[in-house]
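Limitations
The structure tokens in this dataset are predictions for the assembled complex, not deposited experimental models. Users should treat interface geometry with appropriate caution, especially where small molecules or nucleic acid strands are included. An illustrative entry is reproduced here so readers can see what is and is not provided.
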Amino acid sequence: MSTKPIIVMKFGGSSVANIDRIKAVAQRVVNAKTSKTNVAVVVSALGDTTDELEAMAFQIMKEPPDREMDMLMSTGEQISCALLAIAIRALGREAISLTGAQVGIKTTKSHTKARIETIDNKRILKAFDAGQIVIVAGFQGVTEENDITTLGRGGSDLTAVALAKTLKAQVCEIYTDVNGIYTTDPRIETNAKKIKAITFDEMLEMASLGAQVMQARSIEVAKRFNIPIHVRSSFSKEEGTMIIKETDKLENIAVRGVTCNKSEAKITIDAVPDKPGVAAKIFTELATAGISVDTIVQNVSHTKHTDISFTVSKNDLSKAIAIAEKVAKKIQAGAVSSDKNIARVSIVGSGMRSHHGIAAQMFETLAKNKVNINMISTSEISISCIIDQKSTDKAVKALHSAFKLDTLS
Amino acid sequence: MSTKPIIVMKFGGSSVANIDRIKAVAQRVVNAKTSKTNVAVVVSALGDTTDELEAMAFQIMKEPPDREMDMLMSTGEQISCALLAIAIRALGREAISLTGAQVGIKTTKSHTKARIETIDNKRILKAFDAGQIVIVAGFQGVTEENDITTLGRGGSDLTAVALAKTLKAQVCEIYTDVNGIYTTDPRIETNAKKIKAITFDEMLEMASLGAQVMQARSIEVAKRFNIPIHVRSSFSKEEGTMIIKETDKLENIAVRGVTCNKSEAKITIDAVPDKPGVAAKIFTELATAGISVDTIVQNVSHTKHTDISFTVSKNDLSKAIAIAEKVAKKIQAGAVSSDKNIARVSIVGSGMRSHHGIAAQMFETLAKNKVNINMISTSEISISCIIDQKSTDKAVKALHSAFKLDTLS
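Predicted assembly:
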């Protein structure tokens, strides 16, 4: 059995959008596969394949059965992994493509959002021993009954990280269309800097607060099994961002990044009777309806009544208002109002644990820039403020500069 | 275990070329699945999918590896069977799609032209017991190592027939874009009649002599296991042609059909020394080069030399001429000439065995119509004449009428 170090490389849909890009990926993979390393590659479906397949199904039926959708959608990755294997063979190197089923990626039965349970490494290690580069179809697996499943959004990242764990890979490289993780969205702040290294926890926090490079699920798995992730560009040789366990090597800075998120709306219920169990009623009803609530603020009560505000995803807003109004009536609360024009601006950094005064500095910075704070919520390594949506860019720039993120080397 | 009679229905690429046709096929399948029957459906890839996938591979590499081509091409049938299952569910009926691997269609390792070795019926019977219509991806299987294979041209027909055998189906229905098997090509003879029933042997003979509805391989399997095949149109409810074992029920007529084939060319070697083993030399060399020879005629020899003529596929002509010239030199024969402007016209019918004078009637008919006969070859149930290509239509019409095929009811 081969004991060479193993690298897992994952290429997203835009990296394999057409034949020329597939050839470029093949060249990149071939360069990585030296006599001293083994390489397993995970690919997503070609550019628009997923959308095209979905559109065909929806032309037939509004809510097609999940099992059949998985059967259909999984062909996208099967096509791209076969083509990449061909492109590598065209460069004169050995390669073999494998579906999720062929690798032995066993999942739960939850079609369209299955979870990986086990991965068999035998077939891949056998291919490594035969000197082959292994191309694995991302996003898919099979149940015990051999039914094809898919892993939901960001599924190919998950395949890559889980594979890296199974193969005891040195690193899991996630190739994408950006150069790495930035201190903030470069479309808002042109001085945003690429972060060299970030901890799993910081990345998780940034992902949940609006950074869109990787899905939280894959980072959680990487964190649990301590798989270093290298997020980098398919289109350049530049080093990207390492996502790693917290170590002494990581520069101990208070704030690693600034995120913003405009996908939430705020609901306020006025004059809620200030009695135990009343707030619970509202949030239980929302949870039962499958609506997840983010920040909750209950104003300090000077009377026997209090105002409760909370944020929900804009997608859930009308449903949430209806529920809030129903409950408000039942508990004899006042009016229900809502506000779509809000944004969440957050700062994230493990260093907050040891640095003091970060929250104060954030509030002062916003105040100095005349950004009004609506609501505040904090976690161990982040602070978020809900503000007026129109102030988003101003707030992001001000915070980015105040915490000296634009001076990172 | 369900003991209901089982029907296998197979739909080709043109029958599932677009969403509307898939819906029509779904309706047809749903009509066939009564409370008293179980239905397994085999589908080919959607219209142009196969060509599109192939084109992508060839853009990357001139001769892509067979294993990866099978991985790629097999997605076509996986897509169509998932879509058909969705379309059946849209009609409110239970359906499940299965890949070749999921059914358990085990094949040899000869990628792109694998042979089916065994089919497991467990998964399908389980689905039948659950009241489901089963949709199987045609054209594909897996090796013992779980590598995806494809079965080559006409592979979906083969899947259908083999499945019918495994399931002990009552009938295997092959849905296509024609109404059945005709007494001759209706594009040549507008009076061609649909044949109600034909024997496996007659159909095999007609397929090898130019009729293009079904590949010989599938008919051979059907014959071996005595699976009745019903060739019929996807676009009409009309009964098609039954391909069955020879029985007393089949009308005992001498000639069942007339075929023609313009894909061959003739090669003649003059003045071949009339010694034992000389002809063998020529045909051994051709066989070694993988060229298959059809009709061979050696003229009666009055001297110590003889002329040998034979036909080969036009695709192999230049290669065959080169070999013939090399051998002619070695055996001190005369010139090698060739003729592309030939056609094979054949009559086929099991009744020939018991009817006399059929050959004479064929030759007389051609003579009366001034069609010159170049070469003749016969089998137990067919007679073929090689004629000038420009006389093909005239010969076909004359024979069709002489053997009263236009008066079949």
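Some entries come with short summary sentences. For this one: The first helix of chain A runs from residue 19 to 32.
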